[in-house]
Amino acid sequence: MRYFNLNIIYFNMKNEEIKYVGYQLIVLLLTILAGFVSFFLTYNQKRSLQGKKTLVPPKTLLTISIANRILFLITGSLFLLINFKLYEISKRENENLRTYELQIIASILVVISEIIALYVTSTSTTNQVSDVENPNI
User: Contact at 8 Å (CB) between 64 and 36?
Assistant: First the structure.
């Protein structure tokens, strides 16, 4: 009977881990979407620097850029949360935690960098949008 109970606990932990890996896939899709928006912003910046007509006006670009930075901040924060949850699951399973610790540190650094990028973007004016519309980190 004890073996059966341990098996159920193990099964529940694996299901929980699978759930969080599924969440990672969803957040990754959001990150890819934000990457496409960044590509669009960078392409628009290139057109502006070449003296060509831009695809969207500067004020709209600034709004898109701020929204995109917020999306990056949200995805970075979600990755941090997911990594922490996976760390907790692995800790209960007595697994090696070093990989998860490094992922948490990396996620913290991403969140900090996105806060800085959002600050830089949100404090810019529409006259300067081509300089900061898509700060690369």
Answer: no
Q: How far apart are CA 30 and CA 14, in angstroms?
A: 25
How many helices (H) and strands (E) the chain has is answered by: 4, 0
Q: Which residue carries 């699978």 as its tokens?
A: 18
Q: Which residue, 45, 114, 119, is CA-closest to 78?
A: 114
**How many other CB atoms sit within 10 Å of the CB of residue 86?**
21
Separation between Cα atoms, residue 34 and residue 16, nearest integer Å:
27
DSSP-assigned letter for residue 97: -
User: Left if phi > 0, otherwise alpha if psi is -120 to 50, otherwise beta: which for 94?
Assistant: left
CB atoms within 10 A of CB 52: 10
Cβ neighbour number for residue 26 with a 10 Å cutoff:
12
Q: Is 56 helix (H, G, I), strand (E, B) or coil?
A: coil
- Segment 11-70, tens digit of pLDDT: 556 788 889 989 999 999 999 999 999 899 888 888 888 889 888 887 888 889 899 999
Which tokens in the block code for residue 55? 């695809």
